[in-house]
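Note to self: keep these together.
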Amino acid sequence: MTEHRPHRRSFLKAAGGLSAAVALGGGGVLAAASTAHAAGDGFGLRIVDRNEGDPRMWYYRFATDAIEWDPGVNVLLPDGYHTSGRRYPVLYLFHGGGTDQDFITFDRAGVRAWTAGKPIIVVMPDGGHAGWYSNPVSSNTGPRNWETFHLNQVLPWVDANFRTYAEYDGRAVAGFSMGGFGALKYAAKYYGHFASVSAHSGPASMRRDAGLVTHWANLSSAALDLGGGTVYGAPLWNEARVNADNPVQNVERYRNKRVFLVAGTSPDPVNWFDTANETQVLAGQREFRGLLGNAGIPHEWHEEPGGHVIRDYMFRRDLDGIIARLRKA
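Structure:
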């Protein structure tokens, strides 16, 4: 088994090169009836660009008051979708942080091949360079309310425009790095939305090591997305927001879900960003796993050789587990 190394990027790398001089500025909806063809606006979204020419990968770009610019969404349809007449479960798949990751990250990484012949719809939305799947405490660059965009707009829009199961047992959420954190956060915070959650090299503990992950979220968002604003507030955090988003503080909200965790164990001799990232990810996932075990909550975990990278073989394994857990097409 090999790692998919060309698409490495970390939630930490977004903050790479930052110094203490960086200025840190102060400052769930279920779906309507589905239709067979995505063909309209709604839920606070207005389609400004689209491409439905590919039989599987359909692309949309939306204008929304939740985000200052027009974020994109890829919807990967299963083979035979257009003729089957069936409804399908949905996987929401979130990309990591950094300037080279967005809603086409997993298309570059090989998601079409991973899902070939699989009876599931995969939705891959923008999440910002360092959006952290959150509504920020402060922004100096206009709205960057990714949580609102994903949960209150994209999710019901997908259920209204594609043949999905608009229910708990019809949805999974997964992601890599920053996206793995987003998946863990959404699965707990919006308990009734997702029956399966997967974090591939995603941090699960925000307060350990003096809150290192929270500091990274603030630094990276200030530098890349918010013009000095922050996701969680600086110099003082919004403690209620951190408490609500921190997976290790919300362990009971993973009960009765399928939980899948992956972290790397080997330092990268070349890329110190990846080494630092995965060291923190591994420690946080171990903390999280211990709490899940103490609570008697089943979970599947893997510690794999290598650093902070997308592992295609782990995503394939995860996908099979997701399909087995969700309602069948």
